[in-house]
Amino acid sequence: xxxxxxxxxxxxxxxxxxxxxxxxxxxxxxxxxxxxxxxxxxxxxxxxxxxxxxxxxxxxxxxxxxxxxxxxxxxxxxxxxxxxxxxxxxxxxxxxxxxxxxxxxxxxxxxxxxxxxxxxxxxxxxxxx
Length: 129
Hints:
mainly alpha
């Protein structure tokens, strides 16, 4: 055996062991879990912001009807955006590899929507209050 062939086999084996395989469809990785949490928090912001926006003109007695609902929507939207951005920044693979990149991008959109709706509801609650 020559000297280069002695070192080629371990280097090739090390290269193969470093490559990551795509996760299974039902496997919940840390990236997928983070993207799921971010999307749910952002969706909470959209729903509460929508309720606050729809009820901004009326004074009912519910907690989401005025300023507090708008603030909850704004904070939830910002949190969903931040968590989704963190998952996007730390994702090592592309979409479809199981790292949560696709869900995190969706969470960014939902979180930004929740932030916008919460900000609009907060603006309207200031006008009517």
